[in-house]
Specification:
557 residues, alpha+beta, 5 domains, 16 helices, 15 strands, 54% helix
Length: 557
């Protein structure tokens, strides 16, 4: 740079001293940049590997006429591959010749590569000696390349692969047959050799739980062994064939990197997992306390004013659902991938499906809870709904099942029950011991004394099974019609489950007692000419000397 500085004195004096200094600084900067660029361009490019098939041969350092060393190495590798696949090229036809560019390797008349002085830099060898070494390496690799891809070698590899496949299949079958026998033997030895695991007086694991734990660990070991056998098999069999050797040699690398990635992700997820475990433990404790509380309320060991025992289990289920829903909402942000758009999209999609398709189900669930807390009926009650009458055999959140008198099971949606009237024959008997009133109506003529009718009907009710004496049966005259009087018999029972049987027997007793009292039960609008007509009372209730009366007509004039 000193000769350049000596030129400063030739700068025109008109520039001035300050101008000379600025001009000197600019020239110095330009020279420094040019020197640095020349150094960067002069730096040698990284060496590249020349390969044949899947085997590395040697490295080259000079790019020669190629854009980069890597592209030159790829071109040389392609030439070697073509020469190795050409069976007309013998190994002794690989030659080395001196050219104006340096030692050059040929396969017959085909150029393979030229060794330049740049390739020999740093090796301590001359280009001629380095070219001879490359020639020897190419001949050995080409011979091995052809030998591995010969029909004999491929047939031998196929035979070995078949034997390995057969051995793996037999091993899997043996393990598949041996493991169930081992599990059965472990179950048989459970009561003989497997003890309960205790710490002082606290039982940590029972023999059954310990046996189950050993079985689970054995299954995991079995699955791990099968996976390792499969990996070894795939790696070995793929390594037998040149075309798949790279894949076979990289199997364990792929598996290792996959396991490493899983381990890294798992370790990174541990804080969130710990938070989820704590939330689940807290939820479990809350549900256990709730289960204990509502079980005691159901059994009557605890009482709360205005809270009925039949509300205990439904209320626990409602508390359980709300607790789990709250826990899920709290846990959701800690789930793997919860913040990803795909996870959020799937969640919205399923929420939309539930909201559109479960409207009727949700309505039935709400109706089920309303029916429970309004105490419309309980299991075992006899109810009447629409044209269905029967006994409640099951109450669920969605439907209520009735067993009819004919022993037919009818399922009614809770939403339908909530939207109509329900007649319950058992509620007052069960809760307040108020008897159920049975009513039946008999229509009799005006010629019968009403006191006789009343006494007869009351006696018939008292003679019927399951009719209460207190309160006693009674008879009401509900209407005075044109042809008859309507007598309504009212009796009481505490057996609504036998309602049909009681009514049938009551009607039988009414007929018997009326016949015994000489009362004819006439149907409405019954008309007859009585003078000379026979009585309508059954013959068994008439006197033995009974004779039908004759007609008595008044004389003429």
């Amino acid at each position: 740079m000193f000769p350049i500085l000596s030129l400063f004195r030739f700068i025109p004096p008109l520039v001035g001293r300050r101008g000379r200094l600025l001009w000197c600084a600019g020239v110095t900067i330009l020279v420094s940049l040019a020197w640095g660029l020349g150094q960067a361009l002069a730096e040698p490019e990284a060496a590249a590997m020349v390969t044949l098939g899947d085997r590395p041969l040697f490295t080259i350092q000079a790019r020669q006429s190629f854009p980069s060393v890597a592209q030159r190495a790829q071109r040389i590798s392609a030439r070697l591959e073509a020469a190795a696949q050409d069976q007309t090229v013998e190994l002794d036809q690989l030659s080395l010749s001196e050219t104006e560019f340096g030692p050059t390797l040929y396969a017959m008349d085909h150029l393979l590569m030229t060794v330049s002085q740049g390739d020999a830099e740093g090796t301590g060898l001359s280009p001629q000696i380095l070219a001879k070494q490359h020639l020897i390496a190419i001949q050995q690799a080409m011979g091995q390349y052809r030998q591995e891809r010969s029909a004999e070698a491929l047939s031998q590899a196929a035979l070995i692969a078949f034997l390995c496949t057969l051995g793996l299949t037999l091993t899997i079958l043996v393990l598949a047959n041996a493991m169930p026998q081992f599990y059965g033997w472990l179950d048989r030895q459970q009561d003989r050799w497997v003890p309960n695991l205790r710490f002082y007086n606290v039982e940590i694991l029972t023999a059954n739980q310990l046996t189950t734990l050993v079985q689970v660990l054995t299954r995991i070991l079995h699955a791990t062994l099968l996976m390792l056998l499969l990996l070894f098999y795939v790696s070995f069999v793929l390594g037998l064939f040149p075309a798949t050797r790279n894949i076979g040699q990289g199997i364990f690398g792929y598996a290792g990197r996959g396991l490493q990635g899983i381990a890294d992700r798992f370790l990174g997820y541990l804080p969130s997992l710990f938070t989820i475990v704590l939330i689940l433990l807290l939820v479990t404790a809350v549900l256990r306390v709730a289960r204990w509380l509502f079980n005691n309320l159901q059994r009557g060991r605890l009482t709360i004013g205005g809270f009925y025992p039949e509300w205990a289990i439904p209320t626990y289920r409602l508390v359980q659902f709300l607790t789990l829903a709250f826990a899920l909402a709290v846990i959701f942000p800690y789930l793997p991938g919860a913040s990803s758009p795909a996870f959020q999209g799937v969640s919205i999609f399923f929420g939309l499906l539930v909201s559109l398709g479960a409207g009727g189900a949700i309505l039935s669930v709400v109706a089920g809870f309303i029916l429970i807390y309004t105490r419309a009926f309980v299991e075992g009650d006899r109810i009447h709904f629409g044209d269905v009458e029967g006994f409640v055999v099951e109450k669920s959140l969605f439907v209520t099942r009735l067993r009819t008198i004919e022993n037919v099971l009818v399922s009614i949606p809770n939403a339908a029950l909530l939207s109509s009237n329900i007649t319950n024959y058992s509620a007052l008997v069960r809760e307040q011991q108020t008897p159920l009133t049975l009513t039946t109506t008999v229509t009799l003529g005006y010629d019968l004394p009403w006191r006789l009718v009343q006494d007869t009907l009351v006696a018939a009710a008292q003679a019927t099974a399951h009719i209460l004496a207190d309160p006693s049966p009674s008879v009401w005259q509900t209407s005075l019609d044109d042809f008859y009087v309507s007598y309504q018999l009212r009796a009481y029972t505490t057996h609504p489950e036998l309602l049909g049987q009681i009514y049938s027997e009551l009607h039988q007793q009414v007929q018997d007692h009326c016949n015994q009292a000489g009362i004819e039960i006439l149907s409405p609008h019954y008309g007859a000419l009585r003078d000379g007509n026979a009585s309508s009372i059954p013959a068994t209730y008439l006197p033995a000397d009974y004779r039908p009366p004759f007609w008595h007509l008044p004389p003429r004039g």
